Amino acid sequence: MKTMGYAAQSADTPLAPFAFERRALRPNDVAMEILYCGICHSDLHQARNDWGWTVYPIVPGHEIVGRVTEVGSAVARYKPGDAVAVGCMVDSCQQCDQCRKGEEQLCRQGNTQTYNSKDRVTGEITYGGYSKHLVVREEFVLRVPDGLDLSRAAPLLCAGITTYSPLRTWNVGPGSRVGVIGLGGLGHMAVKLAAGLGAHVTVLSRTADKQADTLALGADRLLVSTDKEAIKQARSSFDLIVDTVPVKHDLNPYLSLLDVDGTLVLVGQIGPLAEPTTVPLIMGRRRIAGSPIGGIAETQEMLDFCAKKNILPDCEMIRIEQINDAFERMELADVRYRFVIDMASLPAP
């Protein structure tokens, strides 16, 4: 299938139109026309090879919403016209202990990422959602529930599940005390989801200027992390802190805020951190943990939960030709809170 996308040809070239072929349908494949694609911070990192493993050309995009156009002969769950979504992965071994219990993101053989990853059958590099069409294995296609706004749902497929999964892993619910560090694409979803689950939610920020946004998103309060007296008063007051900051930073100011057996879970920074002290960890039986996305079943659960609670990201819609400006603005944190590409702006091949 001939299609069009936007690709980076190297780490220092802007994204530009790119014609390529999607594979012919295998029996268990679903073909879809992409309607909307969210822009994730990891798209920027990968396009610029910040992590050192990018294969060029690269077509980013793993927050994908569209409609089914065709299905393979063995597909039973979907039919043309269905509203569907695809997140950060498009395949896994399906045989290991993790895959069998619905944790495909933790596949022992490594899951196949939606872009910049090797297809398990052919070894070809996968291309992502900054494109007109997508072909995906049926098991990795998600159903968009009725009532969920298609134009705003795309960021749920990464920002949503990345923050929902740790909330579920650590059993957040009514009475839970949750802190959220960072109020960007991930952070604003962590606030909305934790509040939706019934938690008491606090946003942790270095400055007080996020007060209005904090309350508007559904949090109960803002705690200024540079206010030493406020931090002292807040010691041992959180069961879970979700750290969404996507760059190297210092965890030490936050560790004493955890209660006994509390956890600070990292979902933003992939790479080095400033050196933490173990004193509050050992003395308070506190933990630092990490969490990736969730499995397919949990991602579907998250979409259904968001439809039930009417939880959606705050989005700014752009045309595909604005992608490079969006990358620059995202680096400056100049977006509230997630860019989404309207793929109607991408001409058909």
Mass-distribution shape = globular
**Radius of gyration, Cα only, in angstroms?**
20 Å
CATH architectural arrangement of the largest domain: Alpha-Beta Complex
* Content-based structural category: alpha/beta
CATH class of the largest domain: Alpha Beta
Give helix % range: 10-25%
| Amino-to-carboxy terminus distance | 10 Å
Could you give the topology of this structure?
Elements: E1 2-7, E2 16-21, E3 29-38, H1 41-47, E4 64-71, E5 83-86, E6 89-91, H2 97-100, E7 112-113, E8 133-137, E9 142-143, H3 150-153, H4 159-169, E10 177-181, H5 185-196, E11 200-205, H6 211-216, E12 221-224, H7 228-233, E13 238-243, H8 252-255, E14 258-266, H9 279-284, E15 287-290, H10 296-309, E16 315-318, H11 323-331, E17 338-342
Parallel strand pairs: 10-11, 10-13, 11-12, 13-14, 14-15, 16-17
Antiparallel strand pairs: 1-2, 3-4, 3-8, 3-17, 4-5, 5-9, 6-7
Helix pairs in contact: 4-5
Task: Describe the 3D structure.
Helices cover about 25% and strands about 25% of the residues. Strands 3, 4, 5, 8, 9, 16 and 17 form a seven-stranded mixed beta sheet that branches. A six-stranded parallel beta sheet has the order 12-11-10-13-14-15. With about 350 residues, it is α/β, with parallel strands linked by helices. The protein has helices at about 40-45, 95-100, 150-155, 160-170, 185-195, 210-215, 230-235, 250-255, 280-285, 295-310, 325-330, and strands at about 1-5, 15-20, 30-40, 65-70, 85, 90, 110-115, 135, 140-145, 175-180, 200-205, 220-225, 240-245, 260-265, 285-290, 315-320, 340. It folds into two domains: about 1-160 and about 295-345, Medium-chain alcohol dehydrogenases, catalytic domain (Quinone Oxidoreductase, Chain A, domain 1, Alpha-Beta Complex), CATH 3.90.180.10; about 160-290, Rossmann fold. The chain contains eleven helices and 17 strands.
